[in-house]
User: Fold these one by one.
Assistant:
Number 1:
Amino acid sequence: MAEKDVVITYETLFELLRIEKNREDLQKLSESFFDDVRAYLNDKKYSFDSQESQSLLFAADDKEKARLEIENIKKILKQLYDLREKKIINTSVNKARTGVTLINTANMLPSERLLFDSISMVLTEFRKNILFRLACGEVPNVDSLPDSVVSKLNCDLTSSAAQEPIPASSSDEDEEGTGGMHFRAAEEPKELKTTPNFSDLRADIKKVRFLAAIGEIVGPDLKIYGPYDEGTVITLPNELARVLVEKKQAEEVTN
């Protein structure tokens, strides 16, 4: 059935709930879903109120049937919302944990996209301020919600569409302090243990030259970079490069 042909009835709501339950991914809803449901539910309530005001013309069992139908509609809506909310939260958690920026949000309604963006940003910010700080031996910053999150949420809440993509997550956002890097003691030069994939960091990389030999570095994405010899010139994520320069362990190469 084409999306524009969908008419909200008790049966269609029940079918939407059944499909949402049986499929792992978030299912597509009409962009007018909320308006259609609101109109359908208000129509049901109006019919019920009319029966109440004309009680002599309607049997008691008819009124009870109408009341139960309204209650069942509300239960279906709650279950459908709970299922979709859970899927959105799980997707937000996965984005914060993996740093993946290409998330399919096509089946999210505008309000659901706002929920997804907001949860993802909060999780990412707290992950940086707790996990990444612990990774470099610093005290986690849990005093309050980061200002960057508050500002972004305020901006989103005043936006009518909330459709713009969220800035990339923990792997390429700016971090405070040491940026979540943990430094180990330099060892004898050896082959690079891991080769980072910078395909999603091309707009946020910097070339540096090491001023001294350095051991393995655990970056904000918890990947291992290094070890590097003195004089090595390499392109690194901007945040990692910034921390190395601040610690006088590398210098920026501009050409």
Note: Confidence is low (pLDDT under 50) at residues 160-203.
Number 2:
Amino acid sequence: MAVKQFTQSVMFIHGLFTNYQCWDEWVKHFMAIGYLPIAQPWPGRDKTVAELRDNPDDALLARLTLEQVIAEHVNAIHLLPEPPILIGHSMGGLIVQILLNRGIGAAGVAIHSAPPQGVISTQWSFLRSNWPLIDPFIPAERPYRMTFPEWQYAFTNGLPGDVQRASYDNSVRPESRRVARGALSGVTRVDFSQPHAPLLLVAGGSDHIIPPSLNRSNYARYKASHSQTDIVEFPGRTHYVLQQQGWQEVADYVLSWLGQ
């Protein structure tokens, strides 16, 4: 699947708990080949992880919704000279699916994507990893900051202890429960029968928070669209896939799929 290169914009969309800096190495990698990459921050996330962690805007986190996050990306896309390639991770991957369903984007890559409405998993690791955000006994307006043990289980399971600690200190910032709970609403409905731009789903064999079986279920729904939809699974990759050792293999696969 060939997509125009060398003047082609690529918008990277981050997910929950992190910020646009999670794409730093991917931006350099794509830029070196000739793409025009943009790591798009969510509303209020145009700061470093340290700034967001040490001085969180609790008022923003209390009211921010998934609809607003999606609208921020749509507005940014409309400022570009042409439809960009969209590459998202986790909740960012779900946003890619939603935007392609709306006819926005030249192509899409959803890495360990959160599932659209109606695509569910009863796998224990999925339920355990996501429960702190969706627990109905905790008010939606109360921001949530993942603890280190939660990060170890949900994002970096099986990785060396020093990597787990450093990644937590360098990556995690407080999160909006409203955004996370928006993933359970009609905002994330995807019409799987509708034609769409080429889409690649990337799964990780060791991901706890988005297990590979969930990505496969997501992929299976697209059979009715008769549009190009592909899936690849990388063994041993956790939800920390964007920065996990060997991330270049994933990035190079994406580039190959795009036509490099």
Note: Residues 66-78 form the longest helix (13 residues).
